[in-house]
Write a structure and sequence with these properties.
Layout (H helix, E strand, L loop, with lengths): L1 E4 L7 H16 L4 E4 L6 H9 L2 E4 L12 E4 L6 H10 L2 E4 L3 H11 L5 E5 L5 H9 L4 E4 L2 H7 L10 E5 L5 H12 L5 E3 L5 H15 L3 E5 L5 H15 L5 E5 L9 H6 L2 E6 L5 H16 L4 H7 L9 E9 L3 E5 L5 E5 L11 H4 L5 E10 L4 E5 L1 H18 L3 E11 L2 E9 L2 E6 L18 E10 L4 E5 H19 L5 E10 L2 E6 L2 E6 L11 H4 L5 E10 L4 E5 L7 H8 L5 E10 L2 E7 L2 E6 L20 E10 L4 E5 L1 H4 L1 H4 L2 H4 L5
Parallel strand pairs: 1-12, 2-3, 2-4, 4-5, 6-7, 6-8, 8-9, 10-11, 10-12, 15-17, 20-22, 25-27, 30-32
Antiparallel strand pairs: 13-14, 13-16, 14-15, 16-17, 18-19, 18-21, 19-20, 21-22, 23-24, 23-26, 24-25, 26-27, 28-29, 28-31, 29-30, 31-32
Helix pairs in contact: 4-5, 8-9
The protein binds iron/sulfur cluster (SF4).
Iron/sulfur cluster (SF4) binds next to helix 1, helix 4 and helix 8.
């Protein structure tokens, strides 16, 4: 059995300096000392300072302080607003801001027009203080996941930016964030501001946890750097059977973990930057005492129970059911607790209806509480792992998945994408892959069931990126292929005019477009397609030609049925009277449209009951006049009309013979 105490455990240089400064002030200053926030995150230490006359206050209390108050700024630093308030109130202060933190304040204050970026915990006082120093736009991101959600794939930002990190940020995550942001901001200045004390401590705890059965992290649960150390130790412990990590505030917390400590053959102790050396020593001593205790009868009995560890997957038996949780018997000394949120993400499920005492249930052990003899369980996380396997398999096979859009993610005013859930697995779909046109709202997608493909996957981080667009593209391609396969020359369609060009028009026929050439659009002289068609117009067309290689479809429009001569002769005969529209004037007479695309000639001699030298004397283009059909020449496709015949019935009889047919 061995106990190793980390080289970097306990106060970091910044905290040591702050503690030394407050000790000096307590000794030398004969006036009340007010510390802005807890000097360090350690209950015992804080209580001691309080007893010795230090009052811990929040920034909003500054206005109420007596004139002779001495305000102490801790190692985290503070905001510019607080400094201005101190100045305005004329209060004395001791600034114990850690020099590493001061350096980031300086970088922020000198960022000028560049956007100031910091990776860290936005609620942490250190980050809030740093942000307040930036003169321009300042943004904080909690890690890679937030960055991925904020910047859709392909985002490029040309404006300059400065990137920093909270001093106690996780070094591995910081590296990933840097890599990601470098691809977004083209003019980026990176300052690696993670404090070396933090980095050394994090590296050391990983190495210690890898070589120990049990890693004990000493510190407060509200100390950012302590919690990060514990997370690293936990992560290492979860990756190997039989390893554990504990977070304790003082030695008094240790007896609750007596059996865990005694089971361990190698133990490492580390501590957050705010843990005093005396507490670390006490933990070390108590640990050694526990390890050397004789096993009691009760402990030997306990040892006979099956032993489970965090991360173990087991089948338990439900021993109690309530609306909020299930109790699960695991055959161990711990009672398994499976709370609603660890069973399902869905709301409105009645556990008492769905689960019954005696039912078996698959669970994973999440957290042991030896003090109250319980272990928190999760069945949802097991499902999550199954769902993740489904997502992974779909990425490898290209299979299309179906899920529900749970969230629409925005970055400032723009839409970043949506999150689709596949069971408990979450898949991010960037706006560019949503199938919604650029710039349009993604809100209508929320709650919808969508088909998507996985286009990128990060196994380590369990993150997947999907595409609805890829599915739509594939569906469109399949439907086009099926359409082409069934296409035959002569096949008729009612198409819709989609685009009008000088040389013809594109007409949509189902999933594809075909081209109607200009020559197909008129029977007589060629007319510009824009004169004949309008966008959106329905058109009866047929397939004239289809090239399977190029997928080009030539459509025909002219058929014997819509030949104007057929339409004319079906409807009219010599002697019929019709309304005609004057379309052009010639020296010898006026041409007038009888039906679309078919004109007849009203010769000068037939325009009026008086001599006409020029048709413009009696009609103009656009006039609609009544005329009688006085001649039809089917061979030369000419029609003669007469207005005069209707004015002089007597003369009408002779008209056909007199009216020459003109070109
Ligand atoms: S962890 Fe580093 S940055 Fe923070 S107070 Fe300590 S020395 Fe300063």
């Amino acid at each position: 059995m061995s106990i190793t105490v980390a080289k970097y455990a306990g106060f970091c240089p910044g905290v040591s300096r702050a503690v030394a400064l407050i000790e000096k002030a307590l000794k030398e200053q004969q006036r009340p000392i007010y510390c802005l926030g807890e000097l360090i995150h350690n209950r015992v230490f804080i209580e001691d300072l309080r007893r010795r006359g230090v009052t811990f206050i929040e920034p909003e209390d500054l206005e109420k302080l007596p004139k002779d108050a001495l305000v102490f700024i801790r190692a985290h630093g503070t905001t510019e607003q607080v400094r201005q308030t101190l100045f305005k109130l004329g209060l004395d202060s001791i600034d114990a801001t850690c020099p590493f933190v001061q350096k980031i304040h300086k970088i922020a204050s000198e960022s000028g027009d560049a956007e100031f970026l910091i990776i860290g915990d936005r609620s942490h006082p250190e980050v809030q203080g740093i942000l307040s120093a930036a003169p321009g736009k300042a943004s904080v991101y909690g890690g890679l996941a937030e960055l991925e959600a904020a910047f859709p794939e392909g985002t490029v930002i040309e404006t300059p930016a400065v990137l920093t990190a909270q001093t106690t940020f996780h070094t591995e995550e910081w590296k990933k964030c840097q890599k990601f942001i470098k691809n977004i901001y083209k003019h980026l200045q990176i300052y690696d501001t993670i404090c070396s004390a933090t980095e050394d401590r994090q590296k050391e705890v990983r190495a210690l946890a890898e070589n120990s059965d049990l890693t004990v992290v000493v510190g407060s649960k509200n100390s950012s750097n302590t919690v990060k150390l514990f997370r690293i130790a936990e992560e290492v412990a979860a990756s190997a059977d039989g390893k554990r990590a504990l977070l304790v505030e003082t030695a008094a917390d240790l007896p609750a973990y007596r059996d865990v400590i005694r089971r361990a053959t190698s133990i490492s102790i580390t501590a957050g930057a705010s843990a005093p050396g005396s507490i670390i020593q006490e933990v070390n001593k108590t640990m050694a005492e526990i390890m050397n205790e004789e096993a009691s009868f009760a402990e030997l009995l306990e040892a006979s129970f099956k032993t489970l560890h965090t991360g173990d997957k087991v089948v338990g038996t439900i021993s109690a059911v309530s609306a909020a949780e299930l109790k699960v018997d695991l055959g161990t000394k711990h009672t398994g607790i499976l709370v609603y949120d660890e069973i399902t993400d869905e709301s409105g499920i009645d556990l008492t209806e769905k689960y019954h005492v005696g039912d078996q249930i698959d669970v994973v052990c999440v957290k042991f509480n030896d003090a109250d003899g319980t272990v928190q369980l999760s069945s949802k996380r097991l499902d999550a792992s199954k769902n993740w396997e489904t997502v992974k398999a779909a990425y490898e096979s290209g299979e299309i998945l179906t899920g529900v859009v749970k969230e629409v993610i925005r970055k400032e005013e723009a839409y970043a994408g949506v999150v689709v859930t596949k069971g408990t697995a979450r898949v991010f779909i960037p706006a560019s892959q949503s199938g919604i046109a650029k710039g349009e709202s993604l809100d209508p997608l929320k709650g919808q069931k969508v088909n998507f493909k996985i286009i990128d996957l990060n196994e380590e981080r369990k993150r997947a990126v999907g595409s609805i667009k890829a599915v739509q593209r594939a569906e469109k391609k399949a439907s086009e292929e099926a359409f082409y396969a069934s296409l035959e020359v002569g096949q008729k369609f009612t198409g819709t005019v989609r685009a009008i060009m000088n040389y013809g028009a594109f007409v949509n026929i189902g999933p594809v477009d075909g081209m109607v050439h200009i020559s197909e659009l008129s029977w007589g002289r060629l007319r510009p397609p824009a004169e004949v068609l309008t966008i959106g117009q329905k058109l009866e067309v047929f397939v004239k030609h289809f090239d399977p290689e190029t997928k080009r479809i030539s459509l025909g429009y002219k058929t014997p049925e819509n030949d104007p001569w057929k339409l004319f002769t079906d409807k009219y005969a010599i002697g019929d009277v019709c309304d005609v529209k004057v379309v052009s004037l010639m020296p010898f007479g006026a041409f007038a449209e009888i039906i679309p695309e078919l004109d007849g000639l009203i010769h000068n001699t037939q325009l009026a009951d008086k001599p006409v030298n020029n048709p413009g004397e009696v009609v103009k283009v656009g006039d609609v006049v009544k005329a009688k059909i006085v001649g039809i020449d089917l061979d030369s496709k000419r029609i003669n009309l007469s207005v005069k015949a209707l004015l002089e019935p007597a003369a009408e009889e002779e008209a056909p013979a007199e009216a020459p047919v003109e070109e």
